[in-house]
């Protein structure tokens, strides 16, 4: 049988271990909540940025090829910045990498100086890009509860 001093010491150690574990769990939870809010804000900002890129919703009907290429370069750069900021271990990094890859695939076709050497037409490449972004943006909206922004105005309307 343990004497009362030993019992008090053991009890104190057990209490210290429990308090340490609770403190560690609380801090970890707070860090994760902060990360989740940071991620949500980053994805909200990205979705709003992408919604305002006419190349992704209006295509050749509203923009010339050079403007579309410049816009896709800007999108690719923004995706790279977000990937670098959030890290490749970020749970939505595969989504951002997929969109970045779609930009690269589009630019490979669009920047080919000789149209006869292109694997597909500019319009086909743009349509593929738009398809990837439509799907991935919808997934991000659903995951983070982001309501779609107002529909873009028809740039050809008078």
Features:
158 residues; mainly alpha; single chain; 4 helices
Q: Describe it for me?
A:
The protein contains 4 helices and no strands. By secondary structure, the chain is mostly helical. It has one domain: Four Helix Bundle (Hemerythrin (Met), subunit A) (Up-down Bundle). Helix 1 (about 5-50) runs antiparallel to helix 2 (about 65-85), helix 1 runs antiparallel to helix 4 and helix 3 packs antiparallel against helix 4. The mean pLDDT is about 80.
Question: What distance lies between the first and last C-alpha atoms, to the nearest angstrom?
Answer: 93 Å
Q: What does the average pLDDT come to?
A: 82
Helix/strand order: HHHH
**What's the gyration radius in Å?**
25 Å
Which percent range fits the helix content?
over 70%
Tally of helical runs: 4
Number of strands: 0
Present the secondary structure layout:
Blueprint: H1 4-51, H2 65-86, H3 93-110, H4 122-144
Please provide a brief summary of the model.
The chain is built from 4 helices and no strands.
């Amino acid at each position: 049988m343990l004497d009362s001093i030993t019992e008090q010491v053991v009890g104190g150690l057990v209490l210290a271990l429990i308090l340490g574990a609770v403190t560690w769990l609380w801090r970890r939870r707070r860090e994760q909540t902060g990360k989740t809010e940071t991620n949500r804000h980053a994805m909200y900002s990205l979705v709003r940025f992408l919604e305002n890129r006419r190349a992704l919703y209006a295509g050749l009907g509203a923009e010339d090829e050079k403007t579309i290429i410049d816009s896709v370069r800007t999108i690719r750069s923004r995706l790279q910045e977000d990937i670098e900021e959030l890290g490749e271990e970020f749970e939505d990094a595969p989504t951002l990498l997929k969109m970045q890859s779609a930009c690269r695939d589009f630019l490979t076709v669009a920047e080919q100086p000789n149209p006869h050497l292109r694997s597909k037409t500019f319009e086909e490449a743009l349509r593929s890009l738009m398809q990837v972004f439509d799907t991935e943006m919808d997934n991000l909206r659903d995951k983070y509860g982001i309501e779609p922004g107002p529909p873009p105005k028809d740039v050809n309307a008078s």
